[in-house]
Each structure stands twice: as structure tokens, then as C-alpha cells.
Structures
1.
Amino acid sequence: MNKVLMSGNNIIGEAAIRAGCRFYAGYPITPQNELTEYMAEHMRKAEGGVFIQSESEVAAINMIAGASATGARVMTSSSSPGISLKQEGISSMAACELPGVIVNIMRGGPGLGNIRPSQGDYFQATRGGGHGDYRTMVFAPATCQELADLTMDAFDAADKYRTPVMILADGMMGQMMEPIIFKSPAPRVYPEKFMLRGAGSGKSKFIRGLLLDPIDAEEHNWKLARKYEVITEHETLCEEHNLEEADMVIVAYGTAARIAKGAIKRLRDHGMKIGLFRPITLWPFPELKLRALSAKVKNFLVFEMSTGQMLEDVRLALQGYAHIDFHGRPGGAVPTPAEFANVVARLYNKRD
Amino acid sequence: MAKIIFQKPKSLKEKIFHYCPGCGHSIVHRLMAEVIDEMGIQGITIGVPPAGCAVLAYNYFDVDMIESPHGRAPAMASGIKRMLPDRMVFCYQGDGDLAAIGLAESFHAANRGENITVIFINNAVYGMTGGQMAPTTLLNQKTTTSLAGRQTLLDGYPVKVSELFSQLEGSAYIERCMVNSPAFVNKTKKAIRKAFECQKAELGFSMVEILSACPTNWKMNTIDSCQWMDDVMSKVFPPGVFKDVTKATKKAAEVPS
Ligand SMILES: Cc1ncc(C[n+]2csc(CCOP(=O)(O)OP(=O)(O)O)c2C)c(N)n1
Ligand code: SF4
């Protein structure tokens, strides 16, 4: 298969269409506009494809919920402030068990923040984000190839578990260009019984999340919780890089992990044994894999482009079995690998 | 053989409405079900009830339905209709839902000319949450959040949705009706039919605004509620057809080429 050179935002769009996504709604926001524009151009060319530029992110998420209910593969994308607006809809999709893919190309926050790459939406993405007891699966690609692969996988996961799935990347990933190969997507598996397409001559169906009887609602919540348990058990993904004989492990995802790899390369050249643990699914977090690592390694450094959000999951995973340092650059600041290497070297030399 | 002249519409389930006595929702549900039956579209109809007293409408309508978050039904319905253009898709919205929290979604669905039908229940209050002021609450009307009556300086003015939406080029059919007398009920049914026919003919956005009693939150009995709609409510929200492109379309079609 041929390699193609595309930018991150366009890759997500192309991968989605190739994966059979046939409905996209979105509202412009930097740094993800190229994705909306890509969908405007290419979704309408795909057979049966629908693109709507919605009046808001609130409308976009509800449009994809409606289209998802009909049985279509659906996607919306936005950046941080817009993702905040989608949260009621994401909660509703989780409650109604509607599959769909939501792309967050994160920017600096809080508030309007800025349009620089950031990782400040980790909590929002991994803790459900909206109201109620639910989770969304979160994929955190770190290369353009992963943007393509994980976008396709996100559609499969959304169908398999009938749940909204998030792709969490940042402005850097959205703008970056790398050569990639689009894999051929697996044929879709999604039973018709979940689709709302008019009852025909059969029995009418309804899809709802409102359960006024607390016992019914509790049962529904436990049903969702059991689904999340299965996801936690089967769907964690991570990359382990240079872990052999490491005496210090950096934990980072997405763009931060790329920077960390650059730093590690420099430091290894100076004989420092540093590895990288990169969660690829942020929820479910690869907790057990990370904990197992603490049997060998006693020094961890969490690096995020935030004030420390994934840090909490690392603490929960390591349960005090190892020492954890943190380095963060919030608000859209992105360190170079050289800058970060200095930070790591200082901590490496101070380790027990 | 006995001739059946009146029976429960097929498109209504065997369920007892949970609506209060005298509530307009029950009447409108029945009218819609009759229209759906008469048009033979039960199997191809998909309804979207958002939060509001009628959010449980799927318990009554025997058609495919999906609940929507408060105000968002027209966005959801847009998604459904775009994927299934040959199905009949309706939203069933209250006035808080359509004219306050969901104004953007409704306005833009109308403006895009989404080929859907909105049944808009204007009862001048928030029914489900216990009778707070709605965007359609009349001046001086008392609600639990406008205790001294709605004041223009504090609360602004009743929103006239039919007038507004009829200005949008995407809207095809907009009528305001009432369900406080048998004659008006019949008229409302005709309007609902017309709106659905409009969708069937793919003419664009259709909406029927229905002035509807909420005796519980108006703190009136049913008879007084019907009277109040005649004397007060319909003066602010005059019934009538505000937009009808079906005529224009017909005429254009009749013009010999
Ligand atoms: C985001 C959100 N805000 C508020 C509510 C609470 N709520 C439910 S229905 C409703 C208003 C109902 O009034 P209306 O739309 O006029 O319909 P009615 O009940 O009168 O038929 C409100 C405020 C909600 N469900 N969701
Ligand atoms: S509260 Fe009002 S709108 Fe709601 S069911 Fe009762 S009468 Fe109808």
C-alpha cells in the first residue's frame, strides 16, 4: 500500500471516511479547522455522506447522536472550549448507548485560553466529562500513523461497546505532517436491532436515557458500569519504549510523549538509563501494566502539557510503590526535547 | 355490520396518558396519531421528544422515537432526517425547550430548511419543572419565577416564534393553532396534516405552534383555562397561517411552460 503525506487533522478525516463514517457535524474552532474543512470537501463526495456545519458544538453533538441512532457511523470534532459544550450530549449518548467518535484537538485553557497545543483536557476526557456515572473511551495518538489507525479503531470500539469514543490529540498533532499508510478497515459489525429507522411493519422502538424510577435507573447505571469493566479489562493500550534496564521511566502521552522520546534519545547518548511508558488509551488507563513496572523501576517522571492531570492516574496505578516526579507545561507552552532533557537529567541525577 | 366511526388511533399505544386533566399535550398526541394513521406513515415515522412534560411521549406513540436533551430535538432530528430522507421525522417541543434553551437549534433547523416537522406546544410556562416563566409567558402573567407577573423591564417580552420563523427563507409551513374548543381542535388537526404533507412533499421546515392549556401551572380549572386562551393568550399569540409555500409551489407547477 502507498504511503501518503498528510497533516494530522486531514488524516483523521480521511481515516474516518475510510472507516465508513458517513455523518459529520462540526463548528469551526482552531486548531482543528482543517478537519472540519476536510469533511466539508470529502464527506459529501463519499457515497451517502452527510456534512453539516452546525450552529454550535451543542448542535453538532446532538446531530451526530441523531444520525448515530439511525445506524450511521458518525463523528464530530472540536477543540477544548467546544468540547466543553458537547459534554451534555456526550453524557446523553453514553446514557442512550449511541456509538460515535468525538475528536478533541486540545488547545491552551482554561477559558478561551489560546490556540497553542495543550493537554489540559485530560480530566474532562477521562472522567466522563459530562454529568452522571459514565465513561468515554479515550485514544491518545502520538504519531500521524496512530491518528489514522486509532481513528479507524475508535469507530470499531464505539460500535462494539455502543458508546461514545474520544480521540484526544492537540494542536501540534493536528498540524503535524508525517507519511502514513491507511490500513484497510475491517467490515463493520453493528446489529440492525440497535438502529432506529422507522418501525416498518414491525414493533416500534424507542431510545431513551431518562429513567424516572430510581431502581430502573440504578439498574441501567450498573449495566453501563459492567460494560466499562469489560472495556477496562480488554481495551487498554500502551507503548513501552526503552524500558530494558531503565532506572527512570517517563510517563507521557501524545505530543508530550514525542518530546520525551526526543529527550530520552539525547540522555541515552549520555548513558542515562531512561525509558518511556506511553498510555495510548487514557481511559481505560493501562494501570496494571504500569504497576507491574514498579517491581523493577522505582523512579517515575510524569510529563504533561498541563499542571498535572494524568499524574493522578499514575499515582493511583503505582500506589506508592515508586517515587513519582512531575514536570508540566500548561497553557499552550510546549518545551523542546532539549529543554525537557535538562529537566529529566537534573531529576535523574538526584534519584535515590 | 356496525360501522366504526371513532376508535383509538393505531399509532397510539394502549397506555394511559400521564398528563394532567385538561392538558393540551393529550389532545395534540391524539391528533398527531390520527394524522399518522390517515397518512399511513406509522412505519416510517420517527419522533424526537426532548425534555419537557412530553419527554415520555415514546410511551404513547407507537412509532420509533428517541429522547433528546432539553432543546436539542431539531439538531437530533436534522441528523436523523439527513441519514433517512425518506422517513417522516418530527420534533415535539415545549416553549421553554424551543424558544429558550433550544432557540438556536430550532432557528437554524428552520433556516437550513431541514425537511422535518416541529410540533410546538406553547403553554406559556415551563410545565415539567413546575410552572416557571417561559419565554412565551405573557406580560403580567404570574409564574413561580415571575411572582408579580412578567415585567418587561425585568423579563422582556413574550417570544412570538411563528412570526419569527416565518421570516426565515428555509421555513415552508408555519401555522399557529389552539386546542381549546372542538372547532379549533379540528383546525389544529388539519394544520398538523398540512405540516406532515409539507415534509412528505420535501418542501422544507414545517412547524405548527399550538396554544395549549396547562391548568396545573396556570392554577386555573380547565374551563377557565380554555376561556383564558380565548380572552388573553390568543390576543398575544394570534392563530393563523404565517407561512405556506405549498400554495406558491402549486401555482408555480400549474403555470404552463
Ligand atoms: C439542560 C437542562 N436544563 C434544564 C432542564 C430541566 N427542564 C426539564 S423540562 C424543562 C422545561 C419544560 O418546559 P417546556 O419546554 O415549556 O415544556 P412543558 O413541560 O411545558 O411541556 C426544564 C427547564 C433539563 N432537563 N435540562
Ligand atoms: S404540568 Fe401542564 S403541561 Fe405538564 S402535563 Fe400538567 S398540564 Fe400538561
2.
Amino acid sequence: MTPDTHFREGLAAGEIRLQRCATCGTHIFFPRVLCPACHGTDLHWIAASGAGEVYTFTTVRNRPEKGGDYNVAMVELAEGVRMMTRVDGDPHEVRVGMPVTAYVGQIDGAPAVLCRRAEG
Amino acid sequence: MDHALRGKSAIVGLGVAGLGEAPGSNSWDIMAQSAQAALADAGLKMKDVDGLFCAMMEDSMPVLMAAEYLGIRPRHVDGTLTGGSSFVNYLASATAALDAGLCDVALVCYGSNQRTASGRLVTASRLPPYEAPYKPRYPVSGYAMAAQRHMHQYGTTREQLADVAVAARAWASHNPQAFTRDPITRDDVLAARMISDPLGKLDCCLVTDGGGALVLTRADRAKDHAQKPVYVLGAAAESTHRQISQMPDFTVTAARESGKRAFAMAGVTPSDIDVLQLYDAFTINIILFLEDLGYCAKGEGGAFVADGRIAPGGSLPVNTYGGGLSCTHPGMLGIFTIIEAAHQIRGTAPGLQLDGVDLALAHGNGGVLSSQVTAILGSEATL
Ligand SMILES: [Zn+2]
């Protein structure tokens, strides 16, 4: 199974799977066959805790008849990886540094990592 | 000791075609017209070209398509595609190829009819697989997120971003080749329709047709041609990522490294440069590149560009032709940063010509702040 397939099977099972490098401890996203930090190949899968924070974001302006404005965010997970995702709710209320919880939801019928605002 | 390639090549011909709107031409036609214009400027013929450097968005093997269209059989080709920075990158590879004898006459060329063909920015790239589901507007959303982070971290304001657009328009208002020439104010930029916050329509580059071309030869034969040669004193690249999510720090680009090495190769410092041509796909680019190239400290770019410092009459002339924001932006801009830098040194700028330009910097950017390439060009006096 390719690393990408393993990640996608995780999403289908409701799990955000990340790789961890056994050599240097770096968590890796997107999935691949070597560690981009030390280039080691001894990688293990873990399930992300979901804890994260908005690193930056944008509100994509979109006509109401096309679904209206929506959020695109860069979220840093507690494990140290950053990924593109979407924060639920009013896109105009998203802020840099906002704590979020990543979960597996759906976009256009396919499983995808989404985020909801965390308490606190 | 001088870098082995410092001053070893020279730009001897410049050409543009189809700037603005070019109905009745496709991208290859515009590329070819640009190439012919640059060769005519140099006093050379198409059959003299034996090295071809070309990136286009219409084909996966554009350099081969271009050679076929032009009717030449180059013995050296380079079609490396790093997005809009490709053409500044070719200054480095063409200099090396010329110096190594892989070719004697290098033609760098580009063309696009994206405006008349589709009316929107055409990009050769599909969205990366881990980003596509979230529907970022490519590429503006990537730059918007860099701007948002810069604002958060350093207090940069939309007003400061707007000043970049106002300066570009002020330069363009003097350039008959510019697509948009009516002066704009900070308020106009702030009031424009938002595209991808915090960037509005006037924070974004134009969508135009257009093409550009350069002819380079080894420096030792550069004076045989019709125009005053413009020497390549330094050229250096660095890339950090392809997908914006993988950019190490959204407020720091690889221009820091490309610039450092280009300055070292040229043996000059940022304050020696008379004029800068920076890849302004979006207003945030200028702030990031001025910081990363050493013109101000990290985080101070917003204050630096305020109050007309980079506009006509300001202390640091940037994008004297109007840039991608106000002159032309046919999908990839890189070649136009070089063309304007070379014109300023030759004294042949189509818009405002500055006095006494001996050193000019051209900076290319590709992808979503992914590839950064800096070149430093000089007059004969700088050799
Ligand atoms: Zn590692």
C-alpha cells in the first residue's frame, strides 16, 4: 500500500493518520516514503490527536448563488505538521492563532480533514 | 575572487509582442513575434539561434514546440518550468551553457494569449492533491494567506499593501506599453472588490496577453551586436516548496538565499542597485521581496513601501514599467522583469527612463512563493 493510500484509508475510517520518523522524531505530512527532515526511511503511522491552531487563513469571496464566501485555512496540528483545511462556521470570524480541533468530515461526498473551533 | 560566471554573458537583444490584448494571435504566435523582435534588436537572425530556453503553459514540452514553430534545430535546450521565475532562472542556465560552449546564441522566449483566450489567469498547474478539495483560488489564496500571516505577525496593513499597487500604477501611467494607466489612490485599492482576503482586485496582477524575449551571447562577442550589452553579473535560485502548505515560514521566502548568492556572485550590495524589478503577482510580493533581498528588516516591509518610497520620485525605484500589477501579466511575468531591468541599463525604457542606471536587479517568483530567482544585471562600467 502506498503512503498516500494508507492516509486515504485512514480518512475513510475517520482517522487522521500522520507518519512519525523513528530516527529523528519528526511528524510528517503529506505522506511519503522518506523523512524530509533526516531522510530516514523508518516511518511509523500514528493517529493525530486533532488538536491544532490556525497558522493563517483566507476568506475566498464567492457569489451567494455559488455557495457564498468560504474559509481556506492552514492549520498546525499539535504534532507539528501543517495542512490546508477548512474551519467550520462563519469564515469572517476565523482568526490567526485560533485553537481548532481537526476531524474527518466530508467535502463533495469524499472524506476530508476539517476543523471546528475548539473551546478556550 | 570573482565568481567564475560573473559577467560571462550579456543580453544583446530585447523584444516584446502582443502586450495587453492580442486578438487573432495564439500564445505561440506571440512567443514567435517576441523572439523575432529580440533578434532584430540584436541584429541577429533566427538561424543564428542554437540555444533555446522556453516555458509556456500550453504544452508539456514547450521548448520543443517552440523550436518547431520557430523552424530551428537548437543544439541546447532548457525547458525547466519553475512557474513565473523560469525566465530569470534561464539567465543562470543560459550563462552557464554559453560559457561551457553548449551554445553560442541563446534565445529566451515566452508568450501567452490568456486574456483574449479565456479572460482569466491561465495556469499550467493542477491543484496539489492535498489542497484541491478545499478549493483555494489558485494562486491568489496562497499569497493571501502569506499576507494574512504577515499582517498578524508584523502588523502590516491593507493600506501598506495598497501603497504597492498605487506605486505600480504611478509608474505605469508614464508607460505607453502599460495596460492600465489611470492613476489610482489608496482608497481605490481598499474599495476594490475582495477576491481572497486580505487581497482585493487591485492587490492582484492584471490578466493580459503578451510575450517577451531575450537574446544572450558570451560577453566577449556581445559588442558585435547592435545594442549596448547588458551583462549578467549574478544569478541565483532557491526553492522551498510546491504546495503552499509546505512553505516553511509564510513570511520568509527563499529570496533571502537567492538574493544573498546573486549579490555575492555580482560582488555588489543591495544599496549599490539603481533600480529593482520584482515579480509583483500580488502586492504582498513586493513587501516580502524587499525584506528578503535586504532592503529592510523582516516585518518592516509594510512601513518601507508607504508614502511613495518605491513610486516615481521615491528613494528606491521599483518596477519602473508598472509591473504585473499595472503594466502586463500574461500568466508568467519573469521575462518582463529582465526586459525592464535591461532597458533601464541601456537607457531605452518604454516608460520613465531613470538617469545613470548601471546596476539593476530582476527578481523572479514561481508557484506560490515557491521558487525564487534573483539576477543582477550591469552596464559595461560594472564589469
Ligand atoms: Zn527523520
